[in-house]
Design a protein that fits this description.
By secondary structure, the protein is of the alpha/beta class. Helices cover 26% and strands 27% of the residues. The strands form 2 sheets. A 6-stranded mixed β-sheet has the order 6-7-8-3-9-10, with helices on both faces. β9 (196-201) and β10 form a beta hairpin.
Amino acid sequence: MTMRLRLDDLRKVYPGGFGLHGVNLEIPAGQIVALGGPNGSGKSTLLKCVAGLVRYEGEVLLDGQALDASPAERERIGYLPQVVGMPDHATVGEMLDLFAALRGVDRSTIPLPDGFVRPDDVRIGALSGGQRHRVALAIAMLGDPDLLLLDEPVANLDESGRVVFWDVVLRLCDERGVTAIVSSPAPSELRRLANRGITVEDGRIALDEDFRGTPFTEPAGPTSDLEAAG
């Protein structure tokens, strides 16, 4: 089994002591992981560390190579934050063109069907919350990344948007071996879609469940206080 992502003793501690406290994790290529836990548990921080948006201690490896800040490495990662900010005066096309240029990719690489986002000339300020979220999802998928980091990606989508989105993610994972980590306040709701559910509590992995009855590689080291003590 090809290991796509590996986290070795990942640590990011903010003032006050919250953050991540030594996370060890391995995720194979093609696997969808539902990442859950209470507010403030470290879910979003974990995604930001892997995306290279915050400084951290420990190591993040993608396909066996330690990730650095080079554009070539970061282009392999598609990241969707929980809160997306886009200027109201910009158009859908301008946002997609901007991020495509920043990533050095062609807009045609977005693996979403025509019509998923509004036409290019529609201004962001005219979009509903769900329509803005669709634009953000399209930006995250620019360049056909190998790793998708999605922080509550369907929270603002209607039913049809959720169906289309999950269909695309499942196809990418099945056909291209894309790995996806999907943060959700209720990861059990993703049992039909995800291969695996990981629960984070107080900056540590408290639970690692197989959602599909198929074997997966256990983390390289202790992932919770209980395991470390036992």
